[in-house]
């Protein structure tokens, strides 16, 4: 019992800390929780739990940054995301994702290099391109439970930073998970027990998301972008090692 309480307390503390990080940089919450929950629950169960928990975490970020959300981006991103959220969930139910995890980690590291090249700094993302980004990002999220860093260079290239970046990404993720959660239930990936665990973790993340908003209003735009790139590099290495 004591060991279970310690594990539970550790998960709660990690969830709050991860939500604060996500509230600041818009990404990282699910990725921080992936290895922690996977050790406790298992990989497939973790993806299902995170779908519920991250819906609540993203809802907090969305509300906290609601005045800065770019709804045109949200609409185009969601149009591409919804069908691929279902497709990715189907693949998760039948295929191991280890090799794709390593590829994704390599991609994140390449993104950091790309962001530092003149081409990456000058390129502007068209709003309709978010439909393609949403499709890719939703499919990867459905497989791995997290793909926030995948969209980072494109959101930044469109001109979204700080509250607009965090709020816009979160609004799209809330819409996507509205489809992904029922799909997981339909493929027997999300049970009632896992859903309740997700709600518990999500409540902690909800509070952490508002704490992150308090932090993001107190950092400069340059510091914000550097912090995002540091998270990208760390995630890329983590995925390569864990894949």
Describe this structure in words.
Helices cover about 85% and strands about 0% of the residues. It is globular and about 50 Å long. It is an all-alpha fold. It has helices at about 1-25, 30-40, 45-65, 70-90, 100-115, 120, 130-145, 150-160, 160-185, 190-215, 220-240. It is built from 11 helices and no strands. The mean pLDDT is about 80.
Please outline what is shown here.
With about 240 residues, the chain is mainly alpha-helical. The chain contains eleven helices and no strands.
Annotation keywords:
single chain; 243 residues; mainly alpha; 11 helices; globular
Q: Secondary-structure blueprint of this entry?
A:
Elements: H1 2-25, H2 29-41, H3 43-64, H4 71-92, H5 98-115, H6 118-122, H7 129-144, H8 148-158, H9 162-186, H10 192-216, H11 221-242
Helix pairs in contact: 1-2, 1-9, 1-10, 2-3, 3-9, 3-10, 4-7, 4-9, 5-11, 7-8
Instruction: Assign an overall shape.
Output: globular
What's the count of strands? 0
Number of helices: 11
- Please mark out the parts with pLDDT under 50 across 5 or more consecutive residues, or reply none: none
End-to-end Cα distance: 32 Å
Structural class estimated from helices and strands: mainly alpha
The gyration radius over C-alpha positions equals 17 Å
* SSE sequence, one letter per element: HHHHHHHHHHH
Largest sheet: none
Strand residues, percent: under 5%
**Oligomeric state of the chains?**
single chain
| pLDDT averaged residue by residue | 82
Helix content: over 70%
């Amino acid at each position: 019992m004591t060991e279970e309480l310690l594990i539970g307390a550790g998960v709660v503390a990690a969830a709050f800390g991860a939500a604060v990080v996500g509230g600041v940089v818009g990404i990282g919450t699910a990725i921080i929780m992936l290895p922690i929950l996977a050790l406790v629950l298992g990989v497939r169960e973790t993806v299902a739990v995170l779908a519920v928990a991250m819906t609540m975490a993203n809802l907090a970020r969305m509300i906290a940054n609601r005045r800065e959300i770019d709804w045109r981006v949200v609409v185009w991103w969601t149009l591409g995301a919804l069908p691929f959220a279902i497709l990715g969930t189907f693949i998760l139910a039948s295929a191991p994702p280890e090799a794709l995890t390593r590829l994704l980690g390599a991609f994140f590291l390449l993104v950091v290099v790309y962001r530092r090249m003149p081409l990456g700094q000058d390129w502007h993302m068209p709003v309709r391109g978010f439909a393609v980004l949403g499709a890719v990002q939703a499919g990867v999220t459905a497989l791995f439970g997290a793909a926030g860093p995948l969209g980072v260079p494109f959101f930044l290239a469109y001109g979204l930073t700080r509250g607009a970046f965090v709020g816009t990404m979160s609004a799209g993720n809330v819409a996507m998970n509205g489809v992904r959660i029922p799909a997981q239930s339909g493929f027997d990936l999300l049970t009632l027990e896992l859903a309740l665990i997700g709600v518990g973790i999500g409540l902690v993340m909800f509070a952490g998301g508002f704490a992150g908003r308090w932090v993001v209003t107190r950092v400069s735009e340059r510091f914000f972008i550097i912090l995002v790139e540091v998270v990208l590099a760390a995630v890329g290495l983590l995925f390569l090692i864990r894949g």
